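chain below, 466 aa
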Amino acid sequence: MQFVSIQFCFYFVSLIVALKLSKQENTRQWVLLFASYIFYAYWDYRFLALLLIQTFVAYLTGLFLARSGNSKQVLVCGITATLIVLGFFKYFNFFIETFCKMFFIINTFNLSIILPVGISFYTFQAISYMIDVYRGTIQSERSLKKIAIYVGFFPQIISGPIVKAHDFLPQLRHEHKVQKENLIQGGQIFLFGVVKKFVIADRLGVCIDAVYNAPAAYCWIAILIAVFTYSFQIYCDFSGYSDMAIGIGKILGYDLGRNFNCPYIASSPSDFWRRWHISLSSWFKEYVYFPLGGNRKGLPRTLLNLMIVMLLSGLWHGASWTFVFWGALHGIASVIQKLFNECYKKFGQQHTSSKTKHILCIIVNFVFVSFCWIPFRSNSFENMFAIIKGLITLQAGIRYVYVYAFIYVGICMLSMVYIAVRRNGNAEYPQLNFAKFSSWILFWMVLLVAVVFSYEGNTAFIYSQF
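prediction:
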């Protein structure tokens, strides 16, 4: 059930009406939980049982942690059980194939496994709850209903944001009535995401798919355009989904946090990961990087921890060595940045902070990130090498110029320049004041653009496959 569909309109309106008619918060929570399960079952009802299992494991682990005085063995068992489910459905064939290639064994173990939609996201939320209980950040929740709402909350179950337990569960202690203010604010955020996804990202995907499906047929300029255009496609696609999810959450009275903050004006690799997929970056930082020791155990250990986190981040995105390679590239960049920072500290030098240097760092970092997207977007290493070869050899071929690529990339770049200059690099959701007539005109203009220019072809979210 896509967010922008007739089915979802009926579904969401019915949910709002049901919540509006519910007089008690307990009833509203049951309605929300039931609606979340209907939403997930619509994608594939067979995997609803899997969602219930992950939820129940997290719930039981929380109870056992409370009774055992936060035993580490209980935590390990709970996380292991959760990761086994994720590992089987997402990585079984990948690990078997890799093992067979390493030892030159004919692979006869491939299983026809369907990847459950959203499993990477709700699994990480379940783990967040177990670790937060173990650390004492939150208390063990005795209400299975509340854990089920947290793990299966429908706006973000497909592609995030990944909300930590200590950020979401406390919200369930308060009333969440359907209010006009939330509807207005959340509706604008949702519309903002619709434009980014269906107007910009999906139209940019036309030229990108054409080039990546047959890179040997296109000239190097067309390939270069596709490479840089993909940076904006994946940003508008993923942040567009996040905006829609955050907007729906806002309408329902829930805060899902922030998942993007204009990542392409980042001036360094670490700055990029503070701005890109913030919920995943902060999850790895809080639940992997810090437990590994963070930067508290010396420089060599810090560099190793950075590489481990980025490799795991790459593997989280998909069961393919191209994703691991993508993570390794970002890991190497993070290590190099850390070494440079340590050198500055060791020799007592200060970072020069001129506007020219800052702008140059943004450009270099954007180029690096864009080229790192090549293995991420490629279906295989062969496809990746074909793209790189076409660029290095200044390959001749079809001169494919897609006009929407220049229009929408230009709009995105101008928006980022505005945010960097006028907003000090911090993006905020635009909120119209509907007391003004001009706001109504702008709203209907944006809505018209969304209707007229929305792409009607393949509109699947890129991150739904992760």
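The chain has two domains: 6-176, 182-465. The two ends are 17 Å apart (CA to CA).
thats it, cya
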